[in-house]
Amino acid sequence: MAKYEQLAQELKTLIAQGVWQAGDKLPSLRQTVADSGLSLMTVLNAYQLLESQGVITAQAKSGYLVAPQPETFRYPDRQRQIYLSDKVDINEFVFSVLQASKQAGIVPFGSGFPDPSLFPQQALARSLVKVTRHMSPSFAADNLPPGNAGLRKAISQRYAKLGMSISPDEIIITSGAMEALNLSLATLTQAGDWVVIESPTFYGAMQAIERLKLKAIAVATDPQLGIDLEALAEVLKTYPVKACWLMSQHQNPLGCSLSDTKKQALYQLLNEHKVSLIEDDVYQELYVDSSAPRPVKAFDTEGRVLHCGSFSKSLIAGYRVGWVAAGLHAPQLQRLQVMSTLSTSAPMQLAIADFIQSAQYERHLKQLRKKLADRKLAMYQLLRAHLPESVGVNFAQGGYFLWLALPAHMDATQIYSQGIERGISIAPGNLFSNQVEFRHFMRLNASYECSPEIVSAVVVLAELIRNYSR
Amino acid sequence: MAKYEQLAQELKTLIAQGVWQAGDKLPSLRQTVADSGLSLMTVLNAYQLLESQGVITAQAKSGYLVAPQPETFRYPDRQRQIYLSDKVDINEFVFSVLQASKQAGIVPFGSGFPDPSLFPQQALARSLVKVTRHMSPSFAADNLPPGNAGLRKAISQRYAKLGMSISPDEIIITSGAMEALNLSLATLTQAGDWVVIESPTFYGAMQAIERLKLKAIAVATDPQLGIDLEALAEVLKTYPVKACWLMSQHQNPLGCSLSDTKKQALYQLLNEHKVSLIEDDVYQELYVDSSAPRPVKAFDTEGRVLHCGSFSKSLIAGYRVGWVAAGLHAPQLQRLQVMSTLSTSAPMQLAIADFIQSAQYERHLKQLRKKLADRKLAMYQLLRAHLPESVGVNFAQGGYFLWLALPAHMDATQIYSQGIERGISIAPGNLFSNQVEFRHFMRLNASYECSPEIVSAVVVLAELIRNYSR
């Protein structure tokens, strides 16, 4: 074991013993060099190792803090929670939650989007102004499917930064990731086909399945480890599955990410059964700063993964620009797009192409990742300070969601309704499943700064949970 | 009979006798006042009556010209051309025609869009710049379905100008009319349902029907009189039809418009059978200047018409903003949109709302209508001058399409392939039906100025037709 690994191990033990607790500041690098007699490089390596393991997190100006440790979540059925449903029916509920979240002045803990003040709205407006001034008269035709050539090339270059070789030819620009995901599913399936989703899952997957009259099998996903591959293997053996739709990174609503090993195993498993994967990766850029993870698509040797991305969570919401790297399904998917929305708005494609090819994009992403990590940790600490101990808070690296487990007898829908009356939205667990198993869970958006207003909202939330009436 | 009606009748007789022929200039108002001894008002009324009847057209700076008269079209089955098809399969052909039309430098007679130089691209860019500078941080959420409130209000006000009372609440902003039409069809039907379309029809209708696994009945549509209501009545009696999708104005590909009486009769017929109408009205604004027609939606007393509009043909292509006034189906359609593309790009909605609320919009539309009318007439004359007499050219008021009937033994697909090789695209009749009945027809885009390049292209087209080999 190298010296830096030894140091990391020692620090880990001290943290496990409670010498430093979640949110506590570790001794500075300089201090540790002085205390240990090790070189600065060794100490830095040790800290970075711990950071990559999610044990500590780097905070701007305050050095390294101890990261929240995974809390134990007792799910109703841990082993291999599979359920079947001929009819998924989630729409009315999703719609009413979305509508409620639109109310002006509501504290948006239920929102799926990051705090819009984190987006470089003005800089993007400048890109938009610039490109609209130089649009050729044929701009509409030039940007028909598969979409703007410059934007597809820029996306391809970003894949290259991850060591992935994705040709611009397999990239199709869409009206946000929602269209990318829907087109992917429509490309792979016919009415009546079986599709694997996660449990819990992004409600958009259930809605798409309902709309296309497909049948869904949900495979249990652990809030720290991600999808249960054994359960998935069993499902693939049992059912004639046509597609699998999941998130391998910063899963919505849990926040968890698969390890590289697990991503590769997942790909191999699906490939053995010749099942294509719809990889919803809209939070891809929101990793913790030091390590850029690679999606399952990175292990795709057969063109079987349809990797769906978006700029709505990492750059700007409301422009509605996403994409899919559709592998061997690209030609068919492109035809389907021509039939459904024809194309994505051309000025929006051009503006985003302009922005992401500038140095501003990387600078923005760095800042965004840092801020989201800081705010999520602060929100975690705030929740822990105010919520009863009986409430579990799942903290995963990256993204901006926290997943809360209330005591099992509680129904988060009730908290949701009471919250709306008090001016606070949350996303109740029922949104993420068509069964009641996540009734006592909720997803909170942790992308907002801990302002007095946010603190008050957390206090109210804690009060609602304490006063919960059966 | 009033004096002006008498004068109109006399002029009509002279035109029928060939004293003045299509494209000839009529005597000026002043000249006719001098010749007839009638008042200027009487003469003006007579000319305007003839204009409203499509007998003459007003031309900028050149007074009134005789309009082309309807040519006789012999369709393979004139009476009530109904066919059934369990499987509509048009996609590959449509896609290859669309892709071919994207080639740089091609003469775009096959294009579905008007000459982009007719669009106020720079003025819209200024609107876009203005709105992006003033977007609130919450602009993404504010413009979620049903869409920007200001834009929906502005659209509602335009309906009011036609004497139609359409609440902003039933208007949903979409990513172009294509999304509006697709969502409408998905709202009204389940897989296996029967849908009525026209014959010939916009290929997008057939694609949507195929995608949703519906069954289609096509009802004959006359190039001058529009859909055959007797045939439609019979179909409605015979089949459990769930929806009817048609164009009541400037039909694509024919160009024909229904009279008000026929629009009302159509509505009543559908209403008797409780069948909802998807009214594709994307060329609504492209009428001949003196008369703003009202869609079938104007006769809708039950909220049964889903009126689909777009800015892509009248204002700017490539922004991808359309709408549907969905009547009683609005709530369900809105839910469906949230599930499929989430929403239309917010800056695009805001820019168009800004522009159409300014005086520029009406000014632009007036110019556009005039230019399109002039260019279509010029194109008609050009075609008549070069094409063999055996080719029929259907001239309908409004829009920018001409519908050509080649001799019955010809296949326009062959002309299309040869045309592409010579740098000219056309839209062959097979695009607009899944039967071969329109094999010897073609649609030409007449929105381009008769430049030397366009003249040469017409000469080549005439040559291809003359040299047609069986």
Automatic annotation (TrEMBL), chains A, B:
CDD domains attached to this UniProt entry: AAT_like, WHTH_GntR
Matching InterPro entries: Aminotransferase_I/II_large (IPR004839), HTH_trans_reg/aminotransferase (IPR051446), PyrdxlP-dep_Trfase (IPR015424), PyrdxlP-dep_Trfase_major (IPR015421), PyrdxlP-dep_Trfase_small (IPR015422), Tscrpt_reg_HTH_GntR (IPR000524), WH-like_DNA-bd_sf (IPR036388), WH_DNA-bd_sf (IPR036390)
Keyword Transferase found: yes
Domain HTH gntR-type: 1-69
Keyword Signal: no
Protein name: PLP-dependent aminotransferase family protein
Pfam family, one: GntR
